[in-house]
Amino acid sequence: MTGVLPAVRTPPRHRLATEPDRRAYDRYLAARNQYKEEFLDRLEASCDGGPVLEAGPGYGGFAGLLLARRPVDLRVLCTDPGAAGLLGERLDGAVPIGHWDTGRPLPAALAGRHTLVYGVHALGGCTDPAGLLTALAAALAPGGRLLVNDLRRDPDPFILEYTLREMAADDSPEGGYRLRTYLDSLRGAWTCAELRARLDAAGMDDWAVEPDGPMALTVEHHRSSDDRRG
Asked: Would you state the pLDDT for residue 10?
């Protein structure tokens, strides 16, 4: 079953054209977020009371997990332009929300003001990870930290085999959707080596790319507290 992963990544094509599509993908993300406790621990430990920005394809589910742990001065940007309804429903006006087109810089009003910027599931659909990460880093205040977590295409083969068999055992329509979407996401994921090469080519050799458990990776960057550029 693990032979489904290609040597060359195939960017995912998650269908998000309608509200039912978005809600199905949101339920898929919620299921995957159950395995991100350690990353959530890192985010919680990095919250120091300053402004926090989440940017990615999620619909507020991960933001809700973080807010359930502690009060956070949080803003959420979703890469899906049709996300406003689901985001507003989930966060109920407690958190400012907005849309971010990853082909463009972040809104200028967000530049240089966040002590923590993070993303989950944001890299798989991206063809220019160095550009996306640079755009996110522009929102960091001096001394701020960027953390981006996603699947990787070179996971532990034994854990992957177990995960796929467990998912395939659910023959309900919802189970079939989760398995198809997970495989699509895996095929579009980056390996640590691929991301490292992209960042090095962009002169981002001070950024860290590390495995996060058997299935995921995390990219981390710190903006120097001495960096006072606007």
From this structure: 86
